[in-house]
Amino acid sequence: MSIVVRDVREHELDSVLALNNAAGPAILPLDANRLQYFFERAEYFRVAERDGSLAGFLVGMGDASGHDSSNFRWFQERHSEFFYIDRIVVASRRRGGGVGRAFYADAQSYAELRYPCMACEVLLQGGTDPVMLFHGTFGFSEVGQHVMPETGLRASMLMKPLCSYEWVRDTYGRELPQEPWIHTPRTQQVARSRAAGGRA
């Protein structure tokens, strides 16, 4: 069956929370309040469906979002424009089946119209080689390391340049074509917030 990537729906948040907290030590745990924060503020919050069930999710924020993560602030102190992947989770039974690559392809399609690079981190603890390899083969490279004050965990800070962004910016500026694949209800809400001077 094919993988469908789409915006999360509010009634799915309990299932998303369960996926996150079953992911193991490579993903920081969440509670319902934190997940609601992502639902209300994340610029990109999408789930993957496979065979009619949730196979994973990805949460992303733009550099102007005011996100309160120490890893996000690390990037913000060093880079002016970026799209930050806060977390990507794939259900254990779906790992190795292309869900992660489908997410990153979808997130890049979103980000390269709006940002010059993507940023994320990988926690450096036992068993991270497959995760680092995955990111490396998708074009990310380490730009530093950061010890998270809230957990004491060390993270490899990764970035990937998005070569299409400059052409999109020079051709369209901030007025992207009104195409459904570009403007989902979530991205329209973010655009309205930015136009009103609020945070995404």
Descriptors:
alpha+beta, Aminopeptidase, 7-stranded mixed beta sheet, 7 helices, 7 strands
Question: Mind explaining what this structure looks like?
Answer:
The protein has 200 residues and is α+β, with helices and mostly antiparallel strands. It has one domain: Gcn5-related N-acetyltransferase (GNAT) (Aminopeptidase, 3-Layer(aba) Sandwich), CATH 3.40.630. It has helices at residues 13-21, 32-41, 70-78, 99-111, 129-137, 164-172, 185-195, and strands at 3-7, 44-50, 53-62, 83-90, 117-123, 141-147, 154-161. A 7-stranded mixed beta sheet has the order 1-2-3-4-5-7-6, sandwiched between helices. Helix 1 (13-21) packs across helix 2 (32-41).
Order of helices and strands: EHHEEHEHEHEEHH
Number of domains: 1
**Distance from first to last alpha carbon:** 34 Å
Q: From the helix content, strand content and strand pairing, which structural class follows?
A: alpha+beta
CATH fold-level topology: Aminopeptidase
Task: Give the overall shape, derived from the CA principal axes.
Answer: globular
Give me the CATH superfamily. Gcn5-related N-acetyltransferase (GNAT)
Helix content class: 25-40%
The CATH class name reads: Alpha Beta
At CATH level 2, the architecture is: 3-Layer(aba) Sandwich
| Nearest-integer average pLDDT | 86
